[in-house]
Write a structure and sequence with these properties.
The chain is of the alpha/beta class. About 40% of the residues lie in helices and about 10% in strands. α4 (about 105-115) links the parallel β2 and β3. It is globular and about 50 Å long. The protein starts with 8 loop residues before the first helix and ends with a helix.
Length: about 220
């Protein structure tokens, strides 16, 4: 039903200076189509997949794991290539961390742990979850049972939160970190990674950008 909707025409109307004919009638992408994109091109990115409201979609965890197996993303490789090639290209798909699963729902993480125990899992938490569970220590207890890491809202990324998480051997991936000064600050706080809407900012900040011809990219994509 969702794929019957026009997901792009509104953008042309709202931002005529950025409008493109190809946006008219644009469909929401399926996960399999996202995998298609990840497998194309010269870079080799990984996949970071979240189950949203998984209680509404029983079996979604098994569907995701089965699709990853069908497409050859699972099982994970025994060894890892360098995270970055000599010419600066991303190599995450060649690494053991090429797939990460995440959720706000501990029950969903527990099912993913059972189905794909070798895959990294991140327990997403906001301030509401901390209050509901009764404090940060309780959040960390839940995380250690079902996940390898924790994805706190940026307000919960201060050292007095990240320190206890690291002492429980949990990775820390705060969200949503969109500005350069935020990325710098979060790194000082000890984060192992971030969620961002601004990938173009992050690849520059983390020195992960290889030389590209912007004019050629625009031409290729129809601008």
């Amino acid at each position: 039903e969702l794929q019957k909707l026009d997901a792009g025409s509104w953008f042309n109307e709202k931002t005529p200076d950025l409008a493109r004919d190809s946006y008219r009638g644009l469909r929401i992408l399926k996960l399999s189509e996202i995998i298609d994109i990840a497998e194309k091109g010269e870079n080799k990115p990984g996949l970071y997949i979240e189950t949203k409201s998984p209680e509404r979609y029983p079996g979604v965890e098994r569907d995701i794991v089965n699709l990853l197996k069908e497409r050859g993303w699972l099982p994970l490789p025994e060894t890892s290539a360098p995270a970055q090639s000599p010419d600066g290209r991303i190599q995450t798909r060649l690494m053991r961390g090429r797939v990460v699963l995440q959720s706000f729902a501990p029950e969903s993480l527990a099912r993913m742990k059972e189905l794909a125990p070798d895959v990294f899992r991140i327990y997403l938490v906001g301030q509401e979850e901390v209050a509901k569970l009764g404090g940060w220590d309780k959040v960390l207890e839940d995380a250690t049972r079902t996940a390898n890491g924790i994805g706190p809202v940026g307000y919960l990324a201060y050292p007095w939160y990240s320190g206890p998480a690291h002492r429980k051997n949990l990775l820390i991936h705060p969200y949503t970190i969109d500005k350069t000064w935020q990325m710098w600050l979060i790194r000082q706080f000890g984060a192992d990674g971030i969620f961002t809407n601004n990938c173009e900012t992050a690849v520059v900040f983390y020195n992960r950008r290889h030389s590209v011809n912007i004019a050629e990219i625009f031409k290729k994509t129809g601008y």
